Amino acid sequence: MNFKASALILPLLTTLPLGGCFTTTYTHGHVITGDMLTQVQVGSSREQVELVLGSPSTTSSLSGDAYYYISQKTATTAFLQPDIVEQRVVAVYFDDDGFVKDIGNYTLEDGKIVDIVTRKTRTGGADYGFLTQILRGAQNPGLGL
Question: How far does the signal peptide extend, from start to end residue (predicted)?
Fold first, then answer.
């Protein structure tokens, strides 16, 4: 092997392992742009909201009707677990007649992380170990199981 060939192969072999270290970002869910959001005003009908924003990720009717548009951006480096970089929930609240009465725009700083893939939200008890949960229950007998 001559000097020129080894001068070309050596840099290639040293950079090859770094190929898997690049970060890749993925966007999941229903991404709402600023332009889309400005088209939905208080007083808009449910049909207008669906026309502009599309079908919601989920709905609620507990304390009035609401549409929720959920999106999440994750970053993955090589084989590591993905990190949640950005999470956004746009909530559109309707009055009894089906017109928009309020719009909420929530980010990762406003709440807990929602796992979109498995559709599970971490509960407060998941933050404590088994023994800690038992001892906390003993301290607060009114919160019994």
Answer: 1-20
